[in-house]
Amino acid sequence: METFKISELAREFDITTRSIRFYEDVGLLQPQRQGSTRIYHRRDKIRLKLILRGKRLGFSLAEIRELFDLYDTNQSSSQLNKMLIIIDTKQAALQRQLEDINVVMTELQIAKDRCNQALKSQSPGE
User: Fold this and answer.
1) HTH merR-type domain spans which residues (predicted)?
2) In degrees rounded to 5, what are phi and psi of residue 39?
């Protein structure tokens, strides 16, 4: 079974070992222990990747924990429905952000084009 040291995960994901320990402290990661050494398995690595991606997409640690908890338990209809509501809500928020980003990207491109046009219309040496 493939295992990882905390320093390997920190290097791979370009985060500090302190961040990884924090995710462990709040219950998002549960590495195996051998003395004081933490041994991370593939499951921990995948969870870390999901935590970081979730954070980039605007999920709170509480939301990430709730999704992990729902995934880890025997999934009843009510749990699955709750998970679907969380996912739908987040998808709607991300869709709004994506639309806002597209508008801003268009506006920035227009501003950039105007600047380039103005530079071309200026005489050399101005």
Assistant:
1) 3-70
2) -120, 115
pLDDT (tens place) for every residue of the chain, 126 residues total: 789 999 999 999 999 999 999 999 999 999 999 988 899 999 999 999 999 998 988 888 998 888 888 777 766 787 778 878 888 988 898 899 999 999 999 999 999 999 999 999 986 766
Tokens of 68: 């992990």
Element (H, E) at 23: helix 17-25
- DSSP category for residue 104: H
DSSP assignment of 31-91 equals -EEETTEEEEEHHHHHHHHHHHHHHHTT--HHHHHHHHHHHHS---HHHHHHHHHHHHHHH
For residues 91 and 57, is the Cβ–Cβ distance under 8 A? no
Angle in degrees, 0-180, between the axes of helices 61-72 and 42-56, rounded to the nearest 10: 140
